């Protein structure tokens, strides 16, 4: 495995192959979310991963705008796979950032694997009142954790991870990981909500989701329409939100076979 620093973020490159897979995690994870997936894919693909800017417990804890995050992702792709299209493997906030990157730079993406998060616009339209209330509660909790910071903020992030049954290591989790939620709800003119572009993938896409969780993060109609397009697939797992951690062997097999 080799590493390079891009905007003070360590970017890890591992594996061989003509195609590169850029893996983007979400809350409250790090690049280690993809450990098992890299072991499965590195014999055929170059696996590129990193901890999201600001998520590292050593980071300065400042906010990042959507444009900053998309520019970072663009630089990662340009420096690790110059002149070539990449495959995006995305989860949670990684889906949001990856989908918005594709909406702006479709010419740089060959295929997309989205895990448990669908198109944000169609999702919001189909959520029930209960689901919206749960989403608002946990997102404003995480936003408040970032605003408070320190040990209390760390406790808030980790307690929410416990409530969500997140299987990831608690040690690297900190209040810093709450900033996307703060920008989403309290970012003013920089709020993510005002910058969402329509996500309509023209490239092949695999969508994987867990069915066993208190609220869904995709529209069933969107998933059905996605699956109808040639080259696409939608696969349901009997898991929670962290599909790749709850059922790693099957998840990695589904991804590997679809890519092949």
Features:
260 residues, alpha/beta, Rossmann fold, eight-stranded mixed β-sheet, 8 strands, globular
Structure write-up:
The chain has 260 residues and is of the alpha/beta class. It has one domain: Rossmann fold. The chain contains ten helices and eight strands. Strands 1-2-4-3-5-6-7-8 form an eight-stranded mixed β-sheet, with helices on both faces. The longest helix has 20 residues. The radius of gyration is 17 Å and the shape is globular.
Total helical elements: 10
Share in helix: 40-55%
- For the residues shown, what is the average pLDDT? 96
Morphology:
globular
CATH class term:
Alpha Beta
Structural class: alpha/beta
> What is the domain tally?
1
Q: What integer value in Å does the Rg equal?
A: 17 Å
Strand order of the largest sheet: 1-2-4-3-5-6-7-8
Percent strand: 15-25%
Helix-strand topology string: EEEHEHEHEHHHHEHEHH
Question: What is the third-level CATH name, the topology?
Answer: Rossmann fold
DSSP strand tally? 8
CATH architecture: 3-Layer(aba) Sandwich
What does the main sheet amount to? 8 strands, mixed
Q: Regions with pLDDT < 50 over 5+ consecutive residues?
A: none
């Amino acid at each position: 495995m080799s590493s390079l620093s891009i905007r003070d973020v360590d970017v890890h490159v591992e594996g061989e192959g003509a195609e590169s897979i850029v893996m983007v995690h979400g809350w409250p994870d790090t690049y280690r979310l993809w450990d098992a997936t890299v072991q499965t894919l590195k014999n055929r693909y170059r696996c590129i991963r990193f901890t999201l800017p600001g998520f590292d417990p050593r980071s300065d804890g400042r906010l990042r705008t959507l444009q900053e995050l998309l520019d970072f992702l663009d630089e990662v792709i340009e420096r690790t796979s110059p002149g070539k299209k990449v495959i995006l493997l995305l989860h949670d906030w990684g889906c949001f950032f990856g989908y918005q990157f594709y909406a702006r730079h479709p010419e740089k993406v060959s295929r997309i694997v989205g895990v448990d998060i669908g198109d944000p616009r169609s999702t919001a339209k189909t959520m029930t009142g209960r689901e919206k209330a749960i989403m608002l509660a946990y997102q404003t909790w995480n936003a408040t954790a970032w605003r408070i910071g320190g040990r209390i903020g760390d406790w808030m992030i980790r307690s929410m991870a416990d409530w969500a049954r997140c299987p990831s290591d608690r040690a690297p989790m900190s209040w810093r990981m709450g900033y996307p939620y703060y920008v989403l709800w309290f970012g003013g003119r920089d709020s993510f909500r005002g910058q969402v572009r329509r996500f309509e993938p023209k490239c092949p896409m695999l969508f994987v989701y867990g069915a066993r969780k208190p609220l869904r993060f995709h529209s069933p109609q969107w998933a059905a329409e996605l699956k109808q397009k040639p080259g696409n697939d939608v696969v349901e797992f009997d898991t929670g939100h962290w599909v790749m951690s709850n059922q790693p062997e099957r998840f990695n097999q589904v991804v590997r076979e679809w890519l092949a």
